């Protein structure tokens, strides 16, 4: 009997479906899947898809005013849920700095509409206990468990009685952080997953590399049994480090949004990160498919944008000793997990 084909699971950076993205979809009556542009077929061909959902899904609520917040992101679930379903989104990481932008009622709508659609989520809930629960899905031959944390916007943090996010300090010396993360990982392991993912919305915007404390934290997560660190928040992608054969994607950049583009940092350019996993749960390859955002739509990167992204990723990752092969427009990272 031949060996089964690997299970291919996609990971994206920020998927922000609010503000102008939402307005464009509704006022122009675009099909729900239009937001995925020329990448839609590649997304559908994956066995699974994990995203950071950088907005709430609701038409209710009022903008958070309890503390100063310059931006508020909300998408109408009538088109946003069909859009997520159209490309087979399996898991949404919700521990971020926008899921409470329209207060508790919109957070509750987000949780309810994802549940109704059968899209798993992690990182936010009615209480911190719920926010620590993993998202668990069977994808192909792979059982995947995702935990989700953020160090952004502490006022959005859940506690024993208050809805919100799974908020932590990114500090391996912080005992409360280690206790909370280990609790979430222990819960995730109860499902006996083949793949354990930590999805982290961490750090400030528009920084080009992780801090030393973030690198230490990412390596600690791998040592705690995480198979993939899925980072996001900076709006620009960072380099990738391998630790004990496991990839640490420090930041996946942006995948869909309406943000102004910095001409130097090129925050409209990133990748779809595709992890291949064997039938015995071993990650064997991480493929980086270049993408770019234009007119509130993600697309396959142009030749010029793809070249820029590959060169930048190689440069950023070289400092960690990470090297890639090239396959067409894609970068390929072979994972030696033996």
From TrEMBL:
Domain annotation Capsule synthesis protein CapA: ranges: 8-259
InterPro entries for the chain: Capsule_synth_CapA (IPR019079), CW_Biosynth-Accessory (IPR052169), Metallo-depent_PP-like (IPR029052)
A Pfam family this chain is assigned to: PGA_cap
Family indicated by similarity: Belongs to the CapA family.
PANTHER family: POLYGLUTAMINE SYNTHESIS ACCESSORY PROTEIN RV0574C-RELATED
Protein name: CapA domain protein
Natural source organism: Natrialba magadii (strain ATCC 43099 / DSM 3394 / CCM 3739 / CIP 104546 / IAM 13178 / JCM 8861 / NBRC 102185 / NCIMB 2190 / MS3)
Gene name per UniProt: capA1
């Amino acid at each position: 009997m031949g060996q089964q084909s690997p299970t291919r699971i996609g990971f994206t950076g920020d998927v922000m479906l609010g503000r102008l993205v939402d307005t464009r979809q509704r006022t122009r009556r675009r099909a729900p899947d239009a937001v995925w542009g020329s990448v839609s077929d590649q997304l559908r061909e994956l066995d699974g898809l994990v995203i950071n959902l950088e907005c709430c899904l609701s038409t209710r609520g009022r903008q958070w005013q309890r503390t100063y917040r310059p931006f508020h992101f909300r998408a109408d679930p009538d088109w946003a849920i069909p859009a997520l379903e159209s490309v087979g989104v399996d898991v949404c990481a919700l521990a971020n700095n926008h899921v409470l932008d329209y207060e508790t009622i919109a957070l509750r709508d987000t949780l309810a509409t994802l549940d109704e659609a059968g899209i798993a989520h992690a990182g936010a809930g009615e209480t911190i206990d719920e926010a620590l629960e993993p998202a668990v899905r069977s994808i192909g031959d792979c059982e995947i468990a995702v935990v989700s944390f953020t160090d952004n916007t502490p006022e959005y943090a859940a506690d024993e009685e208050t809805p919100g996010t799974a908020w932590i300090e990114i500090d391996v010396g912080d005992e409360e952080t280690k206790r909370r993360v280990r609790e979430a990982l222990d819960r995730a392991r109860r499902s006996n997953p083949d793949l354990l993912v930590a999805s982290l919305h961490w750090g400030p915007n528009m920084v080009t590399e992780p801090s030393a404390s973030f690198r230490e934290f990412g390596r600690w997560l791998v040592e705690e049994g995480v198979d993939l660190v899925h980072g996001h928040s900076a709006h620009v992608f960072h380099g990738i480090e391998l630790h004990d054969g496991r990839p640490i994607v420090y930041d996946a950049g942006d995948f869909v949004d309406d943000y102004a583009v910095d001409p130097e940092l090129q925050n409209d350019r990133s990748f779809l990160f595709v992890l291949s996993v064997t039938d015995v749960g071993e990650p064997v390859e991480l493929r980086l498919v270049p993408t770019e955002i234009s007119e509130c739509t993600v697309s396959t990167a142009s030749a010029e944008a793809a070249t820029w992204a590959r060169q930048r990723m190689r440069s950023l990752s070289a400092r960690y000793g990470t090297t890639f092969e090239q396959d067409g427009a894609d970068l390929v990272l072979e994972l030696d997990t033996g």
